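Marked as duplicate of an earlier ticket. Keeping the data here for the record.
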Amino acid sequence: MRSPSSWQVGFILSLGVLAISLSAIFIRLSINVAGTPGFEFSLFLGSSRLIVAAFLLLPAWHNFHDKLVPPDAYYYAMGSGLALACHFATWISSLSFTSIAASTTLVTTTPVWVSLISRIWFQEKLTKTTVIGIIIALIGGISIAVGDIQGTDQASNPILGNSLAFLGAVMASLYLVWGQQAQIKGLTVKRYIALVYTLGALLLFPFPFIMGSGYLGYPKSVYFYVLLMAVFPQLFGHTSFNWAVRWISPTLVTLAILFEPVGSSFLGFILFGEVPSLSVLVGATILLLGVTIAVLGARNK
């Protein structure tokens, strides 16, 4: 397969960032309409989003098995599907407890975790620049946490919400790193996303029932927002990142994702009047600066 040019990769990533910036907005709209924030509703949203995406990808299962693809590729893909399910369960839940600005900024710390995972999993060395960037990013994360604790109207339980967003970032990092390995070892992006989105949907499917909420009885607009989440942030956004990691480092892909909190926070201000506290804004700036430094350090090693 012919490698795409750098501008083509950049263009696809830009569209992907635009698409995932809508994710937090659709989630917050769903929470506001349903009036039931918390883990139960978050699990419903995460599961439903993947179920719809998996359904739309059913044609990709035609002649799915390829004898030339080694078993390792499927193992990595299954690990990626598990990480994706955990990412949605944690990050979507965070939006019930903290602000859009804090949640989306913390969840985009993925470059830091990708660097650390690559160090542990693949024995890749961290440069001094990357280590400095990680430290700066952690300082920014602490500033965001302190800013939310000091009080915003959107943060009902900021410690829990911010912790969930951080955990969501770790899971997203595993999702990208293992996804890259699955594709390097032979899975096409079409087969990969069909397998991963479907596995994620199956893993999350029983939890709304276990939590006692199920899938029925919500306002019609909630299901419309779920459809929008499946089409735009999932099929367009996530798939663009999954395609990009086949050609460039996951660390570089996550650099593009840093623009998500900018778009989400702007839309959150327009639609919900969410104005982050000064500590959150300063912390977000420090965090994004630290992550950028970490990414540049990883790129130049």
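See parent ticket for discussion. The chain has a mean pLDDT of 85.
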